[in-house]
Amino acid sequence: MPNNHGICFVSHNRNKLVEIRQLVPDGFDIYGLEELGLTEEIPETGNTIEENSALKAQYVYDRYKIACFADDTGLEIDALGGDPGVYSARYAGPANNSVKNMELVLKNMEGEENRKARFKTVITFIDKHGQHHSFEGIVQGQILRAPKGTKGFGYDPIFQPVGYKKTFAEMTLEEKNRISHRSKSFNKFFSYLNSVDE
Ligand code: IMP
User: Which residue range forms the structural domain that includes residue 45?
Assistant: First the structure.
């Protein structure tokens, strides 16, 4: 495996960068947009999670021609036709307010018997040659009728994964990471990185 492969993570979120650096295989150097000097917001104008993750990575590749990756996550609820999906962060309005987003989901699902839902993360990695590689992680579950638990973030208190009696918000970070959409997609991505010898 090559040493010190620099890969840009297309995100302004420093916490995510720190987390991902701890998980990435040895020999890969993950750096953020700050290190590139890119401060502007990258437009997320896609209609799907796949499109948005590809758009974000392509934006950086077009400008710098470097290896980079972006991730995008959404909660897809069958009874809501796949919503909030790509709009998960801003379902109840432009501000990212988790409580309001969850309240709106619960309101829109009042009286609904079909509670099936899934979290989906898509990572798009663009290699130094401009080739796209995508890695998907899905966790199936159901939307409860009221929030339960205080850990985690976003929609965690109303999402109960299949096979569990507790929500993501009642799990420790370790428990959640063992089964989560995000860790599944990142594990696939990192196995891929480990397997390529450019
Ligand atoms: P992002 O693409 O990772 O920024 O995620 C978009 C939105 O999806 C977030 O603002 C959250 O509302 C929601 N979300 C993403 N991952 C999770 C999760 O693990 N639990 C709960 N909500 C999540």
Answer: 6-195
